[in-house]
């Protein structure tokens, strides 16, 4: 019952094949262990040391040293190699790796033979003295060991790694096991999320939870996922935003609230879009979009410092300085520069369409002024916004929940933060006039009636709440996935989502 040699796992093989010959061989080992009275999946074992702790505490030892310190460690056996009567193994736990040193002098011949039968991928528990080998490798000298979980399915070959992105995204557990970069990204995401929460908490915001299943999806121009509630006999939708419920809480007297959670949009999938994604939405009474710009500068720079070790980072080979203040520029000014002609809310749509097409913009028929401006911006301006830039004062048409600009007709008090060509934040001074809001909802309902599936019916519950009186309020939404992409130097959103959505595998029965 010897361990299979690692070279049997060829570089171009994956472990997705259910009839892999090593699986049957390991299953046979499980049966023989049980027949011998050994449980291959026991419980009741604990550890008192992690790999990283051992390296921090004993990393400076000279070669061939003994510490007299006995520890218990546990983790996955990533590989083993035999040198005469010695067996060296690499144990990987949540913090890193530590070498195992197994010799007959400390284990005895019989137990050393049992240790030799362990396979790559097995979970093991080890008790032993911390030492360094003659070559200076920090190790745990195995005095006792136990098999904690027999790995039936072999890992990818260590020298090859797991390179196929399709397999990596489908089998994230494998990716995390063999790719240190995948673990780094996951750990950075955790730091980003925890620091985002902390930043809003220290500013007096209260974290809340609002419904994921909703009778009516609203708060954004997007197509929702539909489902059905059998007990209530109602069609329902997965939320596309948390906005409307959060603003109802502001009406109810919760003057600073935020929610960090998943939202769902039944739209396309690409390198920057996933059907479900994570946002942080926050609302602050007695604030406007100028206040929120200052807030975002503080929060983003603090999160970057915490998660990336500094507010100046490298993204795709270029430097990004996230220290405030950030540039502020009106959307129409950027569009005017891109077309080399002034664009104002009074510019006729026909004239703007001609200019856009002359500049190479693909223009769908029937666009109004606001959506046309947005299309020009998306195609000609956004890709070039590398340094942190607040794009402010959007057209009214594309901002149905934002307050009308206090001095610019046809515009609203809204901003988006762009960094490295990607939108990270969308925010505005909230519309709190219930009459104006009702009119805009009615326009959306008309658009929906003509086939616009991203527009939504009138939300009477929200209007009733708004009619109670909502104080002047600023609201923002942070795209958490895109922020993590920036801080981990990733171009593909699937790299920062542990389990991204993919098409089902083609299976042959």
Explain what the structure shows.
This protein has 509 residues and is of the alpha+beta class. It is built from 15 helices and 18 strands. An 8-stranded mixed sheet has the order 6-10-11-18-17-16-15-14, with helices on both faces. A 5-stranded mixed barrel has the order 1-2-3-5-4. A 3-stranded antiparallel sheet has the order 7-9-8, with no helix packed on it. The longest helix has 23 residues, at 180-202. The two termini are 32 Å apart. Residues 1-14 have low confidence and may be disordered.
Précis, in short:
With 509 residues, this protein is α+β, with helices and mostly antiparallel strands.
Low-confidence stretches: 1-14
> Termini, distance in Å?
32 Å
Please describe the biggest sheet, giving its number of strands, its sense, and whether it closes into a barrel: 8 strands, mixed
Shape: elongated
**Average pLDDT, to the nearest integer?**
92
Q: Could you give the order of strands across the largest sheet? A: 6-10-11-18-17-16-15-14
Computed CA radius of gyration, to the nearest angstrom: 29 Å
Give the strand tally. Answer: 18
Q: What is the overall number of helices?
A: 15
- Strand pairing plus helix content: what structural class? alpha+beta
Helix content: 25-40%
User: What amount of the residues lies in strands?
Assistant: 15-25%
